[in-house]
Inverse folding.
């Protein structure tokens, strides 16, 4: 039995969908960012970074989306969510997820998380203004070179798909024109039709 | 036979050391950042992101350090550089490397790569001023909770170690006081004594 700590609208959605797709037995606990619950002493005892997601397992607590996604996939091999038996194909999936966490999510975070990296209000406003441009550039690369279609890695749905779906869900809010990203838009539609995605979104919105 | 594209002083050092530790057959090619070679048409054909490292394999080209490190480890299992047969332990190693790429390297990058996320000179200066604080906070967490000792994951040297060594090598330049980080300092010393590290540093400095 796993327990996922998440916050609606956060990147924890990728792990939440993956637990559902894997057929895992799990519970969830919502962390309320508006009341800064992620920095409460109770939650810092779970994840001292003060971030979501965090996954409680019987071996201990895991954090960091790419690691959690691969762990869930490898814990439920019958769900075929990662090509774990092929180191090169596995590395390609990991590289995609690593790009999402280290470049794309970071680009998006400059909209509202400026105080992580600067001190002045003028810098926060400057960072925020650039987000539509940086996110459009990231997704132009994804559209042109990375998203093989119909799924990220091609014919096989993998742990890359819920992660891309999670971050591409931020594009409208980041003022990126989805009409220039037809493959990404098609991927969003295809994801939204999956029963696991619909179930998880209903829970997170409840 | 692999081919590693790297630039001295960059995070490519982690992959370079790991190729050496694995006993891999490989060649290297240096990319000159001073002449902006990473954005030359020749190099963009290798890695359209215009970044190092990139690893040419007989299956194709890999990028993103955490994915490359796991790939090298899994390609040379006899070197025991990752606990690939234990999904939870493997995820812990991946989580550490994911933290380095998505949080610690990103914190450091705000010193000299401000134009990635903002437009104004005042913002770049503001970001740069905060780097000693953000890097000190990241490494305080690594010192207190993550670095088990003597190696990152404990008794077994893994792919987490050259990556930590690479990024901890930036601390003096980021004005972080290493005397407050005795475990990190000890890890640096221990790493610098390894023959593979000495060989790779000599090549990168040549």
């Amino acid at each position: 039995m796993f327990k996922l700590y998440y916050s609606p609208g956060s990147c924890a959605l990728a792990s939440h969908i993956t637990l559902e797709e894997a057929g895992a037995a799990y519970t969830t606990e919502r962390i309320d960012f508006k009341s800064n619950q992620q920095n409460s002493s109770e939650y810092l005892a779970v994840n001292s970074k003060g971030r979501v997601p965090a996954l409680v397992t019987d071996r201990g607590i895991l954090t960091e989306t790419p690691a959690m996604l691969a762990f869930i996939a490898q814990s439920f091999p019958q769900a075929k969510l990662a090509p774990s038996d092929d180191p090169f194909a596995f590395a390609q999936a990991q590289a995609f997820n690593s790009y999402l966490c280290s470049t794309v999510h970071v680009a998006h975070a400059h909209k509202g998380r400026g105080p992580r990296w600067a001190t002045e209000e003028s810098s926060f406003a400057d960072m925020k203004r650039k987000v539509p441009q940086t996110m459009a550039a990231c997704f132009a690369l994804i559209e042109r070179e990375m998203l093989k279609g119909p799924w990220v890695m091609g014919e096989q749905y993998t742990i890359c798909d819920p992660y891309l779906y999670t971050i591409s869900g931020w594009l409208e809010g980041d003022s990126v024109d989805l009409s220039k990203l037809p493959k990404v838009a098609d991927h969003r539609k295809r994801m939204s039709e999956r029963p696991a995605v619909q179930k998880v979104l209903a829970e997170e919105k409840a």
Chain B touches chain A through 46 residues (CB under 8 Å). Helices of chain B lie at 12-22, 41-46, 65-75, 87-109, 121-146, 160-168, 182-192, 195-205. The first strand of chain B starts at residue 2 and ends at 6. Residues 132 and 174 of chain B are 5 Å apart (CA to CA).
